[in-house]
Amino acid sequence: MDYIANTLANLAEQSAFTNMTPGNIVMILVACIFLYLAIAKGFEPLLLVPISFGMLLVNIYPDIMKEGGLFHYFFMLDEWSILPCLIFMGVGAMTDFGPLIANPKSFILGAAAQFGIFSAYFGAIALGFNDKQAAAISIIGGADGPTSIFLATRLGQTSILGPIAVAAYSYMSLVPIIQPPIMKALTTEKERKIRMEQLRPVSKLEKILFPIIVAVVVSMILPTTAPLIGMLMLGNLFRECGVVRQLTETASNALMYIVVILLGTSVGATTSAEAFLNATTLKIVALGLVAFAFGTAAGTLVGKLMCALTGGKINPLIGSAGVSAVPMAARVSQKVGAETDPSNFLLMHAMGPNVAGVVGTAVVAGTFMAVFGVG
Question: Are the beta carbons of 50 and 74 closer than 8 angstroms?
Fold first, then answer.
């Protein structure tokens, strides 16, 4: 009987119920809410499902993230900047840069949306973070998870990498909730109904030369951006050159989805109650939301300015797509425009600022690295 009693006692002691804290319960509930949003509402399930499941598992079994645990080794690939760069290659292989090439003014809208990053930087300084921490946190404003992880690791801010990554990817997933109210508040119904002229056709030669030229120019000016910009443009060159179909398919499908699984689950697994439920994390999450809102607003307002300067030829809604969430932000521009005029098609026009925002966020990250002397 003693043997049975000791065995049952050991089993009970080793169960998650014995060691679970109120904080773990809170995080499990948050994970379930995220899963609901991903599965029932379709909010970027490719990102939100692995992130929320990693969040769920680590709050049931914290050792899964400790050294020797499964997610610990996944997360090392984040810390070494391997997964963010591979994500960029996959994004490049999936993205058509034609709308940006056809309408170079989109670079202005992509640059305007980076205002959110700088607002978060100064906000973080005001809240007591040091320069490098503020820079790492501020990239959340670009709604670019891979760049957020890349910059945080390069600046040596691994202690806050988890909250930064979770905030960045969460806001990327919640673009359809966060952006529309801001866009509608800053534009009139007449502006949202503006129909833009069809984009000019872009030749194959232009599409091949574009990634090569951008990689060379940006990397020459800011060599620290070469890993991100280089992989983004390499993936796009795979897509456009037409002679490496197998590489294009691998980078945009199998490899991309493998990396998303590894990165998503490991990022979600950084959200143990002990690491996540504290004042520092709450400040980071709040700063990220403010930065993302500012970036959306800045892009929309510059879109309004360009609309006025061009005599109403630019729909301001496409300015909100200047954040780096590709292609989610462009889809939101299309959705908000279609709510006002169902026959208005803005998606391709919004893709120009959207991909410009990806390049812009990487450039801002490289600028921070150069300022702090990090190679």
Answer: no
Q: Are 220 and 333 in contact (CB under 8 A)?
A: no
Q: HSE-up of 53 (CA within 13 Å, CB side)?
A: 15
pLDDT digits (tens, 9 = 90+) for 299-324: 999 999 999 999 999 999 999 998 88
Give the closest residue to 348 by CA, choosing from 171, 204, 202, 242: 202
For residues 31 and 269, the answer to whether their CB atoms sit within 8 Å is no
Tens of pLDDT, residues 280-300: 888 998 888 888 899 999 999
What is the C-alpha to C-alpha distance for residues 324 and 148, in angstroms, rounded to an integer? 11
Answer yes or no: are the C-beta atoms of 74 and 265 closer than 8 Å.
Answer: yes
Q: Which string of DSSP letters, residue by residue, matches 296-340?
A: HHHHHHHHHHHHHHTTS-S-GGGGGGGSS-TTHHHHHHHHHHHHH
SS3 3: helix
Nearest alpha-carbon partner for 230 in 109, 366, 74:
366
Mean pLDDT of the chain: 89
Cα separation, 140 vs 149, whole angstroms? 10
Q: What is the pLDDT of residues 201-254, one digit of tens each?
A: 999 999 999 999 999 999 999 998 999 999 999 999 999 999 999 999 999 999
Our CA angle for 137, 140, 113, nearest 5°, is 125
pLDDT digits (tens, 9 = 90+) for 121-159: 999 999 999 999 999 999 888 777 889 889 998 998 888
116's tokens: 């959110």
Amino acid identity, residue 55? Answer: M
